[in-house]
Amino acid sequence: MSFALLAVQILNGLQLGVLLFLIAAGLTLTFGVMDFVNLAHGVQYMVGAYLAAMFASLTGSFWSALVLTLPCALAFGLVLEFVVYRRLYDRDHLSQILATFGIILFLNQAVKALWGAAPLSVPMPDALSGSIVLMPGLLYPVYRIALIGAGLATAAALSLLINHTRVGMRVRAGATNPQMVSALGVDIRRLFMVVFGFGAMLAGFAGALVAPILSVEPGMGDNLLILAFVVIVIGGLGSVRGALIAALMVGLIDTLGRALGPTLLRLALPPAAASQAGRSLAPMLIYILMAAVLFLRPSGLFPIKR
Amino acid sequence: MTRNSVPALVLFAALLIFPFVASFGPQSYLVSFGARAAIFALAALSLDFLVGQCALVSFGHAAYLGIGAYAVVICSLLGVDDILLQMLAAVAAAAVFALATGYVSLRASGVYYIMSSLAFGQMLYFLFVSLSALGGDDGYTLNDRSRLFGAGGLASDVAFYYLCVGALVLAYLFLTRVVGSRFGRALGAIRQNPLRARALGFQPFPFQLTACAISGAITAIAGVLLANQSQFVAPAFMSWQRSGELIVMTILGGVGSLWGAVLGAIVYLTLDETLSQFTDQTHLLIGPILVAVALFGRRGLAGALGAGGSA
């Protein structure tokens, strides 16, 4: 295991981390502010990727596809909020689970019916399609670096928005005590709608960003949704800062565990056992991390103080 | 006799005579479908115990189906082919998994429990995907059904059907006894008002943890039966969609009545099976139905039938 390979894996881990953050950020706010269990957040990511694929083939350009995807993902989130979610805010978690699970089933099948079960691919923008030499012997695709940059920039912008604007202040207040915010005269329903739409847009943005490097296919959001749950449990419900740190942790640990685990285990175990143990343990690492966090800090690393 | 027991009696009576009715149609298809429905009813029933009595929404219950199914595989690899011994192994394994994951998940409440149960289920899924000795992602094909007291009678579909229904009825009777017991009443008190229950000296944690283990163990029995029904075991048994379907069956039936979950499982599977005769895109229809049930049907089928439902 050379240093260059390690660096590549760290970059890959960061990439998964920022992706998870884009999904978990909106989700943690809908959980935290509205106490709403939105299982359908992962399909919003998938819808973003499909929208990007559709617009890319219509316009022939990744950039115009990205620009068109954002408002469409936002509109899509708002439509879902208007048609389904807003009727469920006052209901128990079970009704929310049932409805959003129904939406997952429907949308996963709907994209299959519209675009087929075969994965779609989106051409990479020319400007970012090359690779750069990070150090001698280490080539890394520019696009993936741009993706990490875009994710971190979004995180910074989101942090400004939440910590230094009026809307952000209300969202933070809402995550701490929604009843009080409502009593103070803030239209909490509109706040919910804003958070929902924004979260859907972030998830759609994540989907559009990965469309050129991952295959766009039905169900692509499901696994990320569960990883986003892990991120939220680790980071603390409703905490965007917690989501960022936990997302990067999960991304790095998952990627490095899969890449380095078998090699490290070989130091202690015979090769065959090491490779089986590595393959079994690596995917479990993040869940073990989650269990450890739950054990030591039951409300996450950065809990919202109530 | 409580008002809850009448619909349950009707339901179980219908299940008992089902093979006779089915003999007028394509019996082997219907009986095999019936066994599947009874197995999922058993799983949904045990989930309803957890959701309805403890308000613990486990979104990882398919993991226990998987534990039961893989217990059959591991037992038969070790040469143990008696179904009762396999169930014993499944129950023990499920209880261990439930106690271990419950021990950490129950430290935080509400939404955390939903998310962490989902995550732990997924963890087990990935574990079994990686175990190439058990077939990995491709799954493991069982050559024969398990035996009962050394006899191979379960090879008959009708006999196997009655084993599934028998397990379902026993589990129902057991769980209604549990709900009515001192333990069950304590669970109800903890669900309704944890603070007051605590003040009365009932620490929620050990009660809820025990309930998790009971529910997981019964679902694992359903897993043992499911492996025998399909004679095939794969990690897909414990996919998170499967957990979601179990929740759907439970809610559809009406949470808290126990028999509602049985009805919910039967209705959901019948709906899925019927729709799939006409289209292979059943989810385009089932999805909106679930949304509609969530929006308009407040207490599920049990509620609509005018009984049960305590949640």
Descriptors:
heterodimer, A: 306 residues, mainly alpha, ABC transporter involved in vitamin B12 uptake, BtuC, 12 helices, 2 strands, globular, B: 311 residues, two-stranded antiparallel ribbon, 13 helices, 73% helix, 1% strand
Topology order of chain B in helix (H) and strand (E) letters: HHHHHEHHHHEHHHH
Low-confidence stretches of chain B: none
> What structural class results from the helix and strand content of chain A?
mainly alpha
The number of helical elements of chain B comes to: 13
Supply the number of helical segments of chain A: 12
Strand order of the main beta sheet of chain B, please?
A: 1-2
Low-confidence stretches of chain A: none
Radius of gyration of chain A: 20 Å
Roughly what percent helix of chain B? over 70%
Strand content of chain A: under 5%
* Percent range of helical residues of chain A: over 70%
Cα distance spanning the termini of chain A: 46 Å
Strand content of chain B: under 5%
Strand order of the largest sheet of chain A: 1-2
Rounded to the nearest angstrom, the radius of gyration of chain B is 19 Å
The residue-averaged pLDDT of chain B reads 87
CATH class designation of chain A: Mainly Alpha
Q: Quick check: average pLDDT of chain A?
A: 85
Q: Which two chains have the most extensive interface, and how many residues on each? A: A-B, 48 and 48 residues
